[in-house]
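Morning, I've got a small favour to ask if you have a moment. You're getting the sequence in one-letter code plus the fold written as tokens. Thanks so much in advance, here it is:

===
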Amino acid sequence: MKKDSCALILGGHVNGYSIIQELSEKKVNDIILFGYSRELATYSNKIKKFVLIEKTPESLYREIEKLHEEYEKIVVFPTDDLQLENLHKLYNKINSFCFLPFNPENLQVCLDKYTQYSYCEKLGIPYPKTIPIEVKEDLKMIELIQFPILLKPNKREDLKKKVFRNLKIDNNEDLEKERKNIENYLDDGIIFLASEIIPGDDDCLYAYVAYRDMKGRILNEWTGRKLAQYPDNFGVFSSASNEAPEEVRTQGKALLNGMNIKGIAQPEFKYDFRDQKYKLTEINLRSMMWNRVGNLSGVNLQYSQYLDALGKKVTPQPQLKNREIHFIYLKHEIANLLGRRKYFQKFMQNIRDSDETHIAVYDRKDMKPFFRDCVGIAKIIVGKFLRTIGIVS
């Protein structure tokens, strides 16, 4: 006999494990994990089982069909853009028994960063000067933007092909060095965006995160700030907090409503001290790496989705703002400490300058994922030592 429902997490990295933690704390017992490899969350005692899948919609469909033999309703939590695209391709096959947290009518266009900036223009939301690079001839248009610039695919192509996630170009000499590689990617059909780099460190990044249901209602929301990224200012989450000005919430909410985005989404902004504006960098249409900040500051966004998917009442939760909460991914912080000059003071601020500090992946009742991640930390330390003494380059 089939069980009523389960939560299906796609991807077992820090973002996937944080979702597992939140749902488990809310007594969701049937948590299933699908992943491309044996990531840290696969060692958790909070999951019912782990299933290894390939990066194809066919593989995902086969395993979801098998899971449907056990459960009437499957509530899906994607953690990367490729998973979203694969789920979108399968929508008509599985939406009768799967809760898919996106708007099927506009998902593809909303994943496009240039479309996101186009909506900023319509809605009056600040964004960096940007031009699309679709063909080789467009490269000369880069001169319209003052160096330095950031070049990135208009979608997360790095999940499917060997292409950089972003590339900082400081001057024409840098552009000439990279021209051949960029032209090869353009020949492969990859479209890029060239954007001005907003000055400021990685602690100038803010986010609005919300769950917007299928009727277009925002059921819960929170805001936060990145304190550091890895491996540099254009990397991914290393540390974050629950700090953010009201302007971030206002602009983020306007984007989700104006674009009719559904499910869990995160507009991210960078503060530009030149004109005192918060400018959109990108919108993530799924749970990002530091989603646990919301949970730790009183907003159960993942659980809100789970309840809504099952037709249950979702209670609005005000975010805790009278205490400063830091969320630290120790693996990235140690890598920054070893690899970034003069990082020690920032490292100590991230660890100590808060009312509460929480370490990602660390859970006293579920230590295997943390121990597994410690292996990666040890490799980073050993690698740095070997490079220092000249054994490896």
About this structure: The two ends are 58 Å apart (CA to CA). The longest strand covers residues 218-230. The chain has a mean pLDDT of 95.
